[in-house]
Design brief:
single chain, alpha/beta, DHBP synthase, Rossmann fold, seven-stranded mixed sheet
């Protein structure tokens, strides 16, 4: 008889499978057990916590629950912090957890202790799952864990992003003619960001022996598909593809990183805050996010698998240029990606320029803006 464990080993490691399962469970609002050495921690997405669940979890380790919060959220709660921290929950209180994790006007109500490695692993699980970056955690004895709970080693969570980059592979490709680029091929990659697919759009027939025009474009449902006036993403997407088609071709990487890597639900929470007057980055910080959660190392792997080593980058974001260089690609030039300026997005664009260092020139935007209709 064959060994099924050996067969599974042909696909990936046991640790990678455990993290995949933990991501699915955590996103679904079910608890996950994180292990390290002789210690164990039950972690729950704070969005799934209610009074009934909090009381039930407290029976595992009475009075030992705590809320792990990222540094950005702690700053919004009134602390000068650059590192995440934990707040004790000696009695189960779902309403208090929601307040500390999500309420706009909340203030810290108890001492904040440093996180331990298991807490940090729980916060990383929340980050790769793209849900609220606050985790309700309960340290437990391993013997208290039931057979039905998903378990994962903290080390595997820490190594997960890097392992996903190494595992990236092409899973499908086909010609897809576009409005401004009739000769275009879509290439789908699996990997890079947990349980998601990434797409490379090859426009025309770029000469891979020369510097290739490329753009790394993070998915923006509201701007790319629905033409939101709050950003310039849709204009940048279509404008760069059109420029590639009109010149020597190029490659656009369409990356599943909605809301600067925060996920669509958190993006909508941030949009609501922006409608109440918050700056885009301040809105993210209220929710517990830093300036930008995205990573671009896997984009370089995609380009290499397509045979690209030297690039001309179409971007306004210096972080993208730096990431490609750090990944070993040769960046010989960069040029701006223009969208239109609207009354609804001007503050957003100014914030990207002033707070994140994006190369945004409003006069140049007006000169290069696409024409409506």
């Amino acid at each position: 008889m064959g060994d099924f464990g050996q067969i599974l080993g042909l696909f990936d490691t046991a640790g990678e499978r455990a993290v995949d399962r933990a991501i699915a469970e955590y996103r679904a609002g079910r608890p996950v057990a994180i292990l390290e050495g002789g210690e164990a921690l039950v972690a729950l997405n704070v969005e799934a916590l209610d009074a009934r669940v909090a009381a039930a979890l407290d029976t595992l380790a009475p009075g030992r629950a705590r809320l792990a919060l990222p540094a950005a959220r702690l700053r919004r709660l009134g602390l000068d912090r650059t590192q995440p921290g934990i707040v004790a929950f000696p009695v189960p209180d779902a309403a208090r957890a929601e307040t500390l994790a999500l309420k706009i006007d909340a203030r810290i109500d108890a001492p904040v202790a440093p996180v331990v490695p298991l807490d940090e692993a729980a916060l990383e699980l929340a980050r790769v799952t793209m849900v609220t970056p606050a985790v309700y955690v309960i340290p437990v004895e391993k013997s208290a864990l039931g057979a039905g709970i998903a378990t994962v080693d903290a080390a595997d969570i820490r190594d997960y992003r890097a392992s996903q980059v190494k595992a990236m592979k092409i899973v499908g490709r086909a010609p897809v003619p576009l409005e401004f680029a009739a000769e275009t091929e879509f290439v789908v990659f699996r990997g890079g960001e947990g349980l998601r697919d990434q797409v490379a759009i090859i426009v025309g027939k770029p000469d891979l022996s020369k510097p290739v025009a490329i753009r790394m474009h993070s998915a923006c449902l509201t701007g790319d598909l629905f033409g939101s006036l709050k950003c310039d993403c849709g204009d940048q997407l279509r404008g760069t593809v059109q420029k590639m088609a009109e010149s020597d071709g190029g490659i656009l990487l369409y990356l599943d990183q909605e809301g600067r890597g925060n996920g669509i639900s958190n993006k909508m929470r941030a949009y609501k805050l922006q409608s109440q007057g918050w700056d885009t980055y301040d809105a993210d910080e209220v929710l517990g996010f830093g300036l930008d959660q995205r990573r671009f190392d896997f984009a370089a792997v995609m380009l290499r698998q397509l045979g690209v080593s030297t690039v001309r980058v179409m971007t306004n974001n210096p972080e993208k240029i730096g990431a490609l260089k750090a990944a070993g690609l040769e960046v010989v030039a960069d040029q701006r990606a223009f969208g239109r300026q609207t009354a609804e997005n001007i503050r957003y664009l100014a914030s990207k320029r002033d707070r994140a260092g994006h190369f945004i020139d409003f006069d140049a935007m007006v000169a290069h803006a696409p024409v409506n209709g």
